[in-house]
Amino acid sequence: MFFKKKNKKNDNKQELNKKSGILILGAGCAKCEDLEDNTKSALEKLNIDEEPGHISDYAEMASFGIMSTPALVVDGKVLSVGRVLSEEEIIDLLKKNWSKLK
C-alpha cells in the first residue's frame, strides 16, 4: 500500500540507456551545463543528430563511481570527471570510445 511496485520494463530501459549513448552527470551547476553545451557542439561538428542524456540524481551518479561533477559517460564508461572538456577533447574521446563512431 505504501510502496509502489517497480516496473521492470522501465528499469531495464534505463539500464540500457546508461550503457549506450552519451550521458552528462551533474546536478545542474554552471560547469555541468558548460560540459553539456560543449558535448552538444561536438556532436554537431561530427554531424550527429543526438542529444546527450543528463543525470542529476546523486544516487544514480554514485552508481557510476564518481565523486565529483561534471562527468562525461560514453557507452556506460566514465571518460571524464571533475572538469569541463573542450569541444575538441570531447570529439577525440567520442572518436576513440563511442561505438557509433568506431
Could you walk me through the main structural features you see in this protein, from its secondary elements to its overall organization?
With 102 residues, the protein is α+β, with helices and mostly antiparallel strands. The protein has one domain: Glutaredoxin (3-Layer(aba) Sandwich). Helix content is 43%, strand content 16%. It is built from 4 helices and 4 strands, in the order H-E-H-E-H-E-E-H. Strands 2-1-3-4 form a 4-stranded mixed beta sheet. Helix 2 packs across helix 4. The N and C termini lie far apart (49 Å). About 13% of the residues have low confidence.
Overview features:
102 residues; alpha+beta; Glutaredoxin; 4-stranded mixed β-sheet; 4 helices; globular
